[in-house]
Amino acid sequence: MEVRTLLLQQWASCLDQEDWFPPLEKVLEDITFEQAIWKPVEGAHSIWELVCHLLFFEKRILLRFLGETKNEPQAENNEATYRLPTETSQNWQKTKQEYFYVHRELEKILATSELEDLYREIPKDNPLMIELKSLAMHDAYHIGQIVFLSKMQGAWAAKRSF
């Protein structure tokens, strides 16, 4: 099996394909604004903050691959990658949609680019193939946190397909 096929499967399982863990699109489907900003204790991250964190890194890799490094998101440290926009229901919806869009754009690049392009080093990082492998594992880790936060709020019914 080709590495691209494996990565495409792994990448899809993070967004919209049921696998060993629920995909983020399904997890966030019914999360309300109130649930998105809720924190179990001071110092913990909210669901929305976790989605912002995931979006930060995916958007950065997408823009680096496209050669648009001057537009990539910046953060003074890792904690800053969790920063929220103005807390409104509309901005919560926008954050989700932007995350889904960026994730799908990276998937399209993975599916359609020549292998040489996927293996070329992108500015400041490894080749895109390596970055997408790492991002998929990073996403899976944080998806687990998001599911746990939604369970703590009673927002997670038996949504699994098995």
TrEMBL record:
Gene3D superfamilies associated with the record: dinb family like domain
Pfam families named in the record: DinB_2
Domain DinB-like residue range list: 24-146
Record-linked InterPro entries: DinB-like, DinB/YfiT-like
Protein name: DinB-like domain-containing protein
Organism: Heyndrickxia shackletonii
